[in-house]
Amino acid sequence: MSTSISNQTLVHLAEKYGTPLYVYNFNTIERQYKKLQSAFEGTNTRFFYACKALTNINVLKYVKSLGANIDCSSINEVKLALKAGFPAKRILYTSNGISFDEIEVAKELGVYINIDSLSNLRKFGEAFGDQYPVGLRLRPNIMAGGNLKISTGHENSKFGIPVDLLDDILTIVKAYDINVIDLHIHTGSEIKDVGVFVKGIEVLFDLLPHFPHVKVIDLGGGFKVPYKKDEQGTDIDLLAKEVFDAIKSHPNALGRSLEVWFEPGKFLVSECGTLLTKVNVLKKTKTTRFAAVNSGFNHLIRPMFYDAFHQIDNISNENGEVGNYSIVGNICETDTFAWERPMNEIKEGDILAFRNAGAYGFEMASNFNSRYKPAEVMVLNGNDALIRERDQFADLFRKQIEVL
Ligand code: LLP
Question: Looking at the structure, do residues 263 and 278 belong to the same domain, yes or no?
């Protein structure tokens, strides 16, 4: 049985549940997880799903059922992970810029913690000394990632403790006898070049002799998925080979048994997702032909925020004559999804499918212009189920307090 979802089925789902609609094919998540498992088979590797990409509780439960662990970026994501049934020892809290209170809660909950500032490291030492093992989120000064907004390891990045502050790190670690078990980096998102991960290993391995208790090298997430038809994603088999070659041959690895952790977000859930929208209006101008859909950057902000490319298909007219259209939303901002994109002929009422929208799609959605967030549907083995209702009018002012 094919586990991909046909355009005909997508049109049917749009009719059944309405639009705009996020549809997630859970079989694709399984496929992606299995790619990781098979590439890294026989190695000492753990994968933590970076759930900031998509936190629907059903996604979390499904990822858990596959055997993955989970990486969280806020204390509420940690609580969601627990709610989804992950035991504490399968949860990692990789923090950035957070208040120490959250670290205290994370410690109470018993999850792994990566600390990303000297100030929180000191507070951690003062509060817990050597009582609780901890990881260090480091900034390796490596430039990587699809664009500057999603590059997190370079010299001007806010993320992590700069590796050049090693002396300060060691002073704090020694002063409080902090039990550092994990060295972490995350250099960015959409990293195609596996050499970036090897560079990361070199940076971390230079530090290794200073941290005798370290058991884990955490290389973060950022594996690229193809957004365009002719694009290649990260070669995961090559990644596995290069990473373990680099580790095995490094002199600082000798005599140490190390685990490697990764935190893929996009890789696991990007391709599973499709945003279905309906064309409200066609408008011809001197420069282009607009097709305005019942969505906007309130539902999928990646094209506007990162200039990200998403494949868009007119699934109502797959064989229509191809012409150029500019696909825009209905928000009172310039919310251009695509400019002069070749598309099969579009008529008002057609369903346009935005591909690769599983990661950072719904998750970055908002109620801007007092519009509703879309509904979400999962499909597993050909069966569909609603996993989030579309907002209703009352949701728009649910938290407001009328004092006048
Ligand atoms: N680990 C850490 C510590 C991270 O900060 C991130 C992503 C990941 C893992 C997962 O990265 P991924 O495998 O998903 O690339 N909203 C942007 C991406 C921002 C990623 C932020 N951190 C986008 O839509 O392209």
Answer: no
